Amino acid sequence: MLTEIIKELRKKIADQEETRSKKAEETRSILENKESTDEEIASANKAASEVRKMDDQIKADKEKLRNYEATAKTPDNHKEPEGRKMSAEDEEKRSLNEFLHSKGETRDGITSTNVGATIPESIVYSPENEVKSATDLSQLVQHFTATTASGEYPILKRATATLNTVEELAKNPELAKPDFENISWKINTYRGAIPISNESIQDSAVDLTGLVSRNAQEQKINTTNVAISTILKSFEAKTVAGESVDGIKHILNVDLDPAYNKVIVASQSFYNYLDTLKDKNGQYLLHQPIADGSPVTLLGVPVTVVEDTALGKDGESHAWIGDLKRAVVMADRLDIQVRWVDNDIYGQYLQAVTRFCVVKADKNAGYFLTQTDAAKAPGK
């Protein structure tokens, strides 16, 4: 009797794995196809959820099969062994780590050999994330949600006309029409996948998938930062020089319209230059925040610091000064999505996808600065 149950359960598991493999392959094909419609992507996401449920069922059936097989090997007079319980570590990882399992060759990715820092030998410890700058420039620009792959975004220019003086009960004169400038945009797709071996997931002392997920989010921030910084570097260039702040003052007071909400995005080297500027009394001009969460300011203008390579080469001193929300528009189509996609290895794929477009909106809203040692005329 028990032999028949084991035989039927093995057949059931084989059928489930075949069905799940086909559904996962169809889902992956849709998600990796750039031409997939929103409806197809939504359907694929639903199918991926069904695949996860199937994996849970397959796992439960395999656990049941192991118990039956153990019972079949147990002598009649002996107590049947209890089912293997899931460890606390497995419980924590269950939502992400119990997904697609398949057999095959090992390929490049995250494997046991290159995540040794998180896999314990005789003790358990948690690795620390590397301390790196993660300034998100997308938080400083203008956003709008795109519902199509391309289009135009209207920018209302600053009004320069005035109202007319009229006599009492005279007919209202016509006001000047608002001046719009249409900015063309086209969505770009950015995506990639990180393979992770199941051995690494199972043997890691920490939630390895959580660490990799955070890394994928950091890569998304790096991607948007590169797109935004490329736009910032295309603005009119100016130089500031020496130990004087006069060049920056000229840009703030004269070159930029007073209506702009000005900010400074400074590379680390440029920030170091700002941090050394002093007034005639020897007081530093860069003011540190008084309250937590407040920005550093120069001449009342908030300063955001990014790594040197965001605005140029390592060691170069660059900055952008102006109104970021007027200067740059970001069209959001799809934020980052992390999906566990089927693979022909004994492992999992962490897939990250983001779709957006960054364009220059107001070309007069800012300047790209380079700090040099040679003295030059202010603002030139």
Automatic annotation (TrEMBL):
Coiled-coil stretches: none
Location of this chain's protein in the cell: Virion
Residue stretches of biased makeup (Basic and acidic residues): 15-36, 49-67, 75-91
Pfam families, per database record: Phage_capsid
Region called Disordered, residue ranges: 15-91
Domain Phage capsid-like C-terminal: 128-376
Matching NCBIfam families: major_cap_HK97
Protein name: Phage major capsid protein
Native source species: Companilactobacillus halodurans
